[in-house]
From TrEMBL:
Lineage: Bacteria, Bacillati, Actinomycetota, Actinomycetes, Jiangellales
Keyword annotations of the record: Aminotransferase, Pyridoxal phosphate, Transferase
SUPFAM superfamilies found in the cross-reference section: PLP-dependent transferases (SSF53383)
Highest taxon, organism lineage: Bacteria
Name of the protein: Putative succinyldiaminopimelate transaminase DapC
């Protein structure tokens, strides 16, 4: 008569006992300590500074300029399209690569703005935000020990994705105040193990927009070392003054070796939707999809047609977005300078990096911990985005993606800081 599965399993494991049927404790032997619940490579990532600062802002009632989320909803057209999709029955699993209407809209967007020819059928993948797009790509491309080059200060999810893959993070530091790229440091970062170069432009947290020459240098070294360039371009439509966003995939020889990532959250002020995408050569997109299907399987069905609607908005929306954010940037930059900070004026994103040293704060972490209580404003220390915290010890990041009245209030509160320290 066949044994039950439970009986077989019990004998295989000895039900926690020795071969003679007695436990180690009964023999007086030491019981092995239970290993930590979290694997070692992920222990540095148990919490994020954004959650900590948001909790502090909530507890103190401070204006939260720390986390990068708008305080207004997106365009009515896409909100209405989402509601229509929900009420129209698009509430079950969408196709794995994403709904055709959104994949086609992504391809048209890339053609319209950058003259890129993207096949929506095989070269586009819809993801749960840009974070998943990057994680799926890194997990798909990197074997344990492979190296990924990043540019510090760097968005914290990059390091976590690299750690999940068992990869090695190699950093090139962008230094205050202009955050220029150091060519010698970049060249030294490449090795025989370099698998991916992860570029974020416009760059969070610095607001830097990599220029064409910098991107061509990065691209040429990637080609030389047969590395894939993964570009996070979620702030592509938030570029100011005379800066120009240059997608790496538009550079000579790089379309076949680049995975481009973007999302709806930042452009359309719907960060909670978590609808992102990637595009690139079919074989790289297929590799990322092989991983993505076991992370989230598919991505928010009824929101995909709405994002497609957003991508098709006229040029007036996109130029108005940049102009409106540039005015907010100027408001906050002027206010920070008046409060006594040194400021690096960003040319992209919706973040401003400021130096608190002129106010007597050598430690940005300490300032950000005290700021909500001192004046009722929350910010994020830039040092948490660095492997080497001393590279940005007195720098703090503020977000200006808020309503004008909120920014005016924050500036007025910050103006009191110098008299309190």
């Amino acid at each position: 008569m066949p044994q039950s599965v439970s009986t077989t399993r019990c004998r295989i494991s000895s039900c926690g006992r020795s071969a003679a049927g007695r436990s180690a404790r009964e023999y007086g032997e030491p019981v092995p300590a239970r290993p930590p619940a979290l694997v070692e490579r992920m222990r540095p990532f148990t919490s994020t500074i954004f959650a900590e600062i948001t909790a502090l802002a909530t507890r103190t009632g401070a204006i939260n300029l720390g986390q990068g989320f708008p305080d207004t909803d997106g365009p009515a057209e896409i909100l209405d399209a989402a509601a229509a999709a929900i009420h129209g029955g698009l509430n079950q699993y969408p196709p794995g690569p994403g709904m055709p209407v959104l994949r086609e809209a992504i391809a048209q967007h890339q053609r319209r703005f950058y003259a890129l020819d993207v096949d929506p059928g095989s070269e586009v993948l819809v993801t749960a935000g840009a974070t998943e797009a990057i994680a799926a790509t890194i997990l798909a491309l990197c074997e344990p020990g492979d190296e990924v080059i990043t540019f510090d200060p760097v968005y914290d999810s990059y390091a976590a994705s690299i750690a999940l893959a068992g990869g090695v993070k190699r950093t090139v530091t962008l230094r205050w105040p202009d955050f220029a790229l150091d060519e010698a440091e970049l060249r030294a970062a490449f090795t025989a193990r370099t698998r991916v170069v992860l570029v974020n432009t416009p760059h969070n947290p610095t607001g830097k927009v990599f220029d064409r020459a910098e991107l061509e240098l990065i691209g040429s070294l990637a080609l030389e070392h047969d590395a894939v360039v993964v570009t996070d371009e979620v702030y592509e439509h938030q570029v100011y003054d005379d800066a120009v966003h240059v997608p790496v995939a538009t550079l000579a020889g790089l379309a076949g070796q680049t995975v481009t990532v973007s999302s709806a959250g930042k452009t359309f002020s719907v960060t909670g939707w978590k609808v992102g995408w990637l595009h690139g050569p079919a074989e790289l997109v297929a590799a990322a999809r092989a991983v993505k299907q076991f992370l989230t399987f598919v991505s928010a069905g009824p929101l995909q047609p709405a994002v497609a609607t957003g991508l098709g908005l006229d040029d007036g929306f996109y130029t108005g977005l940049a102009a409106g954010l540039q005015a907010k940037r100027d408001l906050l930059v002027d206010g920070l300078r008046a409060a006594g900070f040194d400021v690096s004026v960003p040319r992209g994103t919706y973040f401003v990096v400021a130096d608190a040293a002129p106010l007597g704060f050598a430690d940005g972490v300490e300032l950000c911990q005290r700021l909500p209580e001192l004046v009722g404003v929350a910010a994020v220390p830039v040092s948490v985005f660095h492997d080497d915290p001393t590279a940005a010890s007195s720098l703090v990041r503020f977000a200006f993606c808020k309503r004008d009245e909120v920014l005016h209030d924050a500036v007025e509160r910050l103006s009191r800081l110098s008299s309190l320290v």
